[in-house]
Every structure is written in structure tokens, then in C-alpha cells.
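User: For my dataset I need records formatted as: sequence, then C-alpha cells, nothing else. Please produce one.
Assistant:
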Amino acid sequence: MGKKINLTIDGKKIQAMEGDKILWAALENDIYIPHLCAMKEQQQSPFAGCRLCFIEIEGKPRPVAACTEPALEGMVVNTRSESIDRLVEAGFNLIMSNHHIDCKNCAASGACELQKIAKERKIRLKPKKLVQLDMNLPKDHSKDCIIYDPNKCVLCGRCVTACRTEGTAVLGLAYRGFERMVTTFGDIPLGETECSGCGSCANVCPAGALIQTNK
């Protein structure tokens, strides 16, 4: 078991376990850092795909991802600055330009991580300067207890990890560029796979792309 260390985040002196990533040290001390892909169980091998958890560390020349940086004794961290806010907003806008916004009818509304980030950082959900990409992909209703709407997927990969560790490993990330998406092997509907319907994918989805219908 690691030892406790002392560090400062946004002027607040906190303690963390040696080896913990800064993201989790901050969140456990009520200091919010936007994030979508990070899962604490993966903190020793973070996915680091969403690029939203930027921070500045005194002594480092440029912002770094909080999910990849270990907390060290005496470290001084800032989660907000003009450059960090600009990076986070740019990353968030890119994600939202490819996200079908339908909060009024979304089952995840109110518990959606996208709404939380927008509120915390005062960023519009609908980007002003980017063209909204509408892939208009079909929803998958084939599994009686899971609905998958790929138009809401933010490619964070949480569902893939959860499916591999708690489910039957039927989900994966496929294709490249704008066509990249979470899907099944061979792109077949969930209902035709060995999906057990455990709901682990929906439990970790931050954006309402996967919804469990029979909790």
C-alpha cells in the first residue's frame, strides 16, 4: 500500500495516495476536472482519449492530462487558466460537434456528464463555430434491455472496458476518423451477439448512448 503525500490543487492543500493520478486525487477532494474517458479502475493504464482533463503543473512547460499524471509530494497544480480553459473548450466543442443533442428526450438527461461539463465550464452544449455533423446512424433496439444510439456516442471507450471486464466482451471500437464508432464484431446488432444484457456498458456511459431499459 502506498503512502500519503501532500500536494496543492487550485490553492487547496490536499492529501493523496502515492501513485494516484491527479484526476482522482482532485475529484476525491471535491475539485472538479472535466473528463469523459477516465475510469478509476484503469488509472494505472488510462485511455486518455477525450483530452478534456488538462491541468497545469508548476515546473512543467505545458498543460498535461490529469488522468495520466501521478500525484507527487509537494506538487502544485492548477485546473483553471486561460490556456487550459481554451483547450478544454476546444476539445469539448469537437466532441459535441459529433454528438446528437436531444436532452429533452434523452434518458440520461440530468445525469449526463456532457451537461455537467457544460455547466461547470460555462460552455454551450451546441458549438457555435463548428458545423454539426449528423451521422444519422440507426439506433440498435435489438437487445430487449439495452438501447444503443451511436449518434450520441462520444467514443470515450468506457463501455468497451466495462463490457470486457464485467460483460461478455461483445463491444469494441472500430474504423478510423469520422467513421470510428463503438460496435460489435461484424457490426451485427447487439441482440444477435452473446451480450448478456448485464448493463455494465450503460452504467458507465457518460452521454446517454447506451441506456438500460429494465433496471
